[in-house]
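Quick one, probably user error.
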């Protein structure tokens, strides 16, 4: 349908299940894509068919490192001339998380550094280029853990709560420049990483609460397409849940 024709999208975590699905759907809709990941091979695989066509590039970047994010943004603009969409589906929880009295403090700083700080860095260095382009869309990634109580993920919850709050404040601050800032809050999504833990008792209980079935990465990518497109031109400062109904149960 070419809903993103003429747009340039910067996508972090491009080598992951959701990030890869976002890259593919953006390409399907006519965007040019900058696929960014700490694992360059995975980033390249996500956009391999578009590389030869000049519709995509793949970049290695640790989103928790300001210099690397700034350099990746600069390379994106140098390649395609502008930026219109910043999409940040990087990060994720790990089994090292837990209750606040028990989880290793190193895990707190890891998830804050990657999920929260990394998301803020994409906006810090990317938003000026959206302003130069006359506006655009920032798509952050929160989680249902930022909206409801899910025990034993206390550090990941803190990071996602921070993303929700900062999404709203950044949206208010940049609306006058034509930039809209929203967050997607996915439910349990069967990316390869999550699928590897899907058979645990905890995961099965969570899956059972998804009224329309557990999500696939493409389900999240479809929401990202909407937020990247002009169809969402009056939507900003919102957290859009794609959660198969779990937050209403």
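Nope, works fine. Designed sequence:
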């Amino acid at each position: 349908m070419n809903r993103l024709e003429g747009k340039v999208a910067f996508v972090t975590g491009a080598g992951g299940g959701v990030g890869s699905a976002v890259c593919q759907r953006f390409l399907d809709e006519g965007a040019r894509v900058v696929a960014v990941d700490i694992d360059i091979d995975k980033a390249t695989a996500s956009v391999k068919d578009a590389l030869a066509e000049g519709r995509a590039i793949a970049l290695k970047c640790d989103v928790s490192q300001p210099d690397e994010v700034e350099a990746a943004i600069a390379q994106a603009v140098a390649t395609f001339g502008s930026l219109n969409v910043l999409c940040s589906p990087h990060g994720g929880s790990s089994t090292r998380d837990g209750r606040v009295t028990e989880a290793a403090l190193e895990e707190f700083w890891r998830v804050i550094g990657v999920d929260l700080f990394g998301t803020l860095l994409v906006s810090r260095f990317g938003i000026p280029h959206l302003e130069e382009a006359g506006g655009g869309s920032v798509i952050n990634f929160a989680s249902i853990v930022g909206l409801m109580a899910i025990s034993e993920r206390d550090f990941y919850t803190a990071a996602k709560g921070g993303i929700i709050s900062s999404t709203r404040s950044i949206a208010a601050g940049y609306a006058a420049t034509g930039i809209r800032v929203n967050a997607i809050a996915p439910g349990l999504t069967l990316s390869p990483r999550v699928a590897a833990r899907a058979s645990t008792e905890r995961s099965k209980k969570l899956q059972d609460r998804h009224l329309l079935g557990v999500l696939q990465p493409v389900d999240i990518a479809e929401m990202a397409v909407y937020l990247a497109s002009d169809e969402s031109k009056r939507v900003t400062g919102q957290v859009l849940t794609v959660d198969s109904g779990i937050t209403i149960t």
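The beta strands are 8-11, 32-37, 56-60, 85-87, 136-141, 179-186, 239-242.
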